[in-house]
Amino acid sequence: MIQTPEPAQIKAAHYATAPTPPISSPGSPSSAAISNNTSRPPLAMSIINHHHILIVTGPAGCGKSTVAKGLSDRYGFDYIEGDDYHPESNVQKMSENIPLNDADRWDWLILLRDAALEALKRGAKGVVVTCSALKKKYRDVIRTARLYDENPNANVHFIYLQANQELLLARVAARQNHYMKDSMVLSQLQDLEEPDDDEINKIKDVKIIDVSVTQEQVAQRVAEVVDNLLNELA
Ligand SMILES: Nc1ncnc2c1ncn2[C@@H]1O[C@H](COP(=O)(O)OP(=O)(O)OP(=O)(O)O)[C@@H](O)[C@H]1O
Ligand SMILES: O=C(O)[C@H](O)[C@@H](O)[C@H](O)[C@H](O)CO
């Protein structure tokens, strides 16, 4: 989540040279919820044996940054805030309430994918990325991370935070100093393709979390789901 109206520093011109990703600042109350409120399991073997990229997805205001910080703290994974990787032109558009289109998003998605791979290459145990990933074809771009990873191939998991329009609008309205306005939430909902049957039952790399509950309850749900996921792959 970008808190200031400053344009992003990072340009998406060359996706092959991903910038150094921002690492989470630990200790926010929300991240503490996921990392502490749920008892920490023994370190999942899969964290040691696999490369994991957790993509926290959903429209603006669903709680991606909140959840992602918690996951990063819980597993000691690097944290990549998707908002920080938009080219200046995208930030400008969003600040002016102009919805992004596919063309605006391609390089951004590839940049995020490559930033996650870069982090793994530098030795990160795993990576958590926030990315709206509103359409199936956007998620497919991120899915190709597996093809570009070195041994072991990265496991990409999408954690889709599901919320209705009313809830998203309320959370965005309550948030201070952020460029995303109500109208942007509405345009994102128009673009949104929720994970479909193929993704859920065939590719099986999507988990859906209902976020219409408190931050602590969301944290609990997400921690349970991701603990299981990582342990299943051990
Ligand atoms: N479960 C929850 N209950 C109530 N408020 C929440 C919950 N989760 C997050 N929030 C609040 O809702 C607002 C949006 O959360 P957050 O910034 O994490 O969403 P986001 O999906 O990252 O948004 P964006 O895509 O616009 O960056 C924040 O003010 C956050 O504190
Ligand atoms: O896909 C998009 O339309 C945008 O990239 C958004 O997802 C923003 O990055 C984010 O939601 C801002 O808060």
UniProtKB/TrEMBL annotation:
Query: Which family, according to UniProt?
Result: Belongs to the gluconokinase GntK/GntV family.
> Any idea which UniProt keywords this protein has?
ATP-binding, Kinase, Nucleotide-binding, Transferase
Question: What's an example GO BP annotation here?
Answer: carbohydrate metabolic process
Upper lineage: Eukaryota, Fungi, Dikarya, Ascomycota, Pezizomycotina
Where is region (Disordered) located? 17-36
Sorted alphabetically, the Gene Ontology cellular component annotations on this record are: cytoplasm
Q: In which pathway does it act?
A: Carbohydrate acid metabolism; D-gluconate degradation
EC numbers, comma separated: 2.7.1.12
Output this protein's name: Gluconokinase
InterPro entries listed in its UniProt record? P-loop_NTPase, Therm_gnt_kin
Checking Pfam families in the record gives: AAA_18
Amino acid composition bias (Low complexity), ranges on this chain = 25-35
The keyword Ion transport appears for this protein? no
Which GO molecular function, any one, fits this protein according to its record? ATP binding
Its catalytic activity? D-gluconate + ATP = 6-phospho-D-gluconate + ADP + H(+)
This protein's species is: Periconia digitata
